[in-house]
Each structure stands twice: as structure tokens, then as C-alpha cells.
Write a structure and sequence with these properties.
With about 250 residues, the chain is an all-alpha fold. The chain has one domain. It has a two-stranded antiparallel ribbon with strand order 1-2. A hairpin with a 7-residue loop joins strand 1 and strand 2. Helix 1 packs across helix 4 and helix 1 packs across helix 7. It is globular, with a radius of gyration of 20 Å.
């Protein structure tokens, strides 16, 4: 799941880099507006507007046809179709190579500001050297938006107490799966050891898993009713195949 959203984030960034022409002295929302006004978006935006969200049984998120990327849901909406767009129009042998080529043209501040280093680490993408910007502060509020994008301008402010003790001054995939201190205090020593092992496995697996699959374009172009029909049919088939009734929406959380 997280690798899938990282691929969506990478596709949105690749589109923003080419068609939004981000500038360091203006809010990132301006670059999104330029994407929205681009011929590439206008010609293909009908393909980018709707998707049934993974992990939600029948939920649907809709975008009004604009290039919106400042929250997770919006990126999850436009990302799958943008991946197809990147594959069909950008130079490179495969999706990974195309994304790396797009990131190679991006200014380091943009990759740092949008937490593209996390996306690159999850997908094992090569990106430009960011050492010149790691001394610049980035916020927990923006990190909590990832895989969405920030809206404001990049502020060239140093870390107030230096970067050495700042978790966001480096790329730590464990931060994507935080463990609360309260929960840790309630664990036995054995449980804490298991939790640490799970975190290490998470970090390793997310970097080494197969490339996130593409949602077929034929599916993305289906109508709302056709998609919900497929969700119903596939879920009913799964429960029939294991000999269990499908739980109702009212009692499945009991």
C-alpha cells in the first residue's frame, strides 16, 4: 500500500516538475495552477479525476477535474492515471527510469520540500544530491501530508538547534510507521523486541518489494456504477471461494 502511494507521489511530482515549473520564491500552489492550465492536463484531465480508493470497500473520492495535490486523497485520485501518462510520454526504458530522469531535472530544494527523498528511498529511485539543502528546516506538518504536497513556499530557514538531532533532517522510513511512547511503555520486553524487528523488516521490505503495480487504464475509465459493481462481485467471489458469508457493512467492525 505505501509503495503504491509512493509511486503516485512520484508521478505527481514528475508532472509538477515538467509542467508546473516550480519556483523557490512562490507558493507551490502556483506551480499546481500552472499544471492545471497546461495543455497536457487539459487534454487528459478526464482520465485523472476519479478513483475508488484502495482499502475502502465502496468509498469513492472525486476530484473536480483540477490538478490538486495538496492532500493524500487528491494524490491518490490523480496519481494512478498520471503514472500511465508518465509511462506513455516521458523518455526512458521503464517507469522507474522515466521518474529518475524527471527527478534529475528538479532543483534540490523542491525534492527536499516535498519529501521526495522518502519516495525515492521507498521505490529505490536515484535522485540528485540533497546535501546542500539538508540543513534547511522542514516541518512535521508537511511530513504528515506525505504523499500529498505542501501548499506554501519553501522557507530557507536553518534547523533552530542544528540538524544532528532532527529526525526530519534525514530520510528515516521508520517515521512512516511511528510507535507511540505510551504503547511502547505498555509492552513487555519480548513485545518491544518484536516491534523493533517489525520496524526493521518494514524498512527493508518497503525498499525491496516489487515495483508497485499499475491500475489498468481500462479500469480507471470505468463509470462509477461499473467500478462499484466490480468491487461487489470480487468481494462476493472471495467470500464464496473460502466458504464464508460476506460480512455486512453494519457488523464487520464488531
Amino acid at each position: 500500500m505505501i509503495g503504491f502511494e509512493a509511486a503516485n507521489h512520484a508521478a505527481v511530482l514528475a508532472f509538477l516538475i515538467r509542467y508546473g515549473e516550480p519556483r523557490i520564491d512562490e507558493p507551490l500552489s502556483r506551480a499546481c495552477e500552472r499544471c492545471n492550465e497546461s495543455a497536457a492536463w487539459r487534454d487528459h484531465c478526464d482520465e485523472f479525476t476519479t478513483v475508488v480508493m484502495p482499502g475502502s470497500e465502496y468509498e469513492r473520492v472525486e476530484s473536480p477535474g483540477r490538478f490538486r495535490a495538496h492532500d493524500r486523497d487528491s494524490v491518490s485520485v490523480i496519481g494512478p492515471a498520471l503514472r500511465h501518462f508518465i509511462i506513455s510520454t516521458y523518455a526512458g526504458a521503464d517507469e522507474k527510469e522515466k521518474l529518475e530522469a524527471a527527478f534529475a531535472t528538479a532543483p534540490p530544494w523542491l525534492l527536499w520540500f516535498t519529501f521526495a527523498d522518502y519516495t525515492a528511498k521507498l521505490l529505490n529511485l536515484a535522485i540528485p544530491d540533497l546535501s546542500q539543502v539538508t540543513g534547511i528546516m522542514r516541518s512535521k506538518a508537511h511530513f504528515d501530508l506525505w504523499w500529498g504536497l505542501p501548499t506554501g513556499a519553501f522557507e530557507r530557514l536553518p534547523w533552530p538547534h542544528g540538524s544532528e538531532s532532527e529526525p526530519l533532517a534525514r530520510t528515516d522510513l521508520n517515521l512512516l510507521r511511528p510507535t507511540s511512547e505510551d504503547a511502547t511503555r505498555q509492552m513487555t520486553r519480548r513485545e518491544q523486541m518484536r516491534e523493533r524487528a517489525a520496524l526493521q523488516k518494514f524498512q527493508c521490505d518497503e525498499r525491496q518489494e516489487a515495483w508497485p503495480p499499475l491500475i489498468p487504464m481500462e479500469y480507471l475509465k470505468l463509470s462509477r456504477s461499473d467500478r462499484i459493481f466490480l468491487v461487489h462481485r470480487n468481494r462476493d467471489f472471495h467470500h464464496a471461494s473460502i466458504g464464508q458469508p460476506r460480512p455486512s457493512r453494519l457488523n464487520r467492525f464488531r
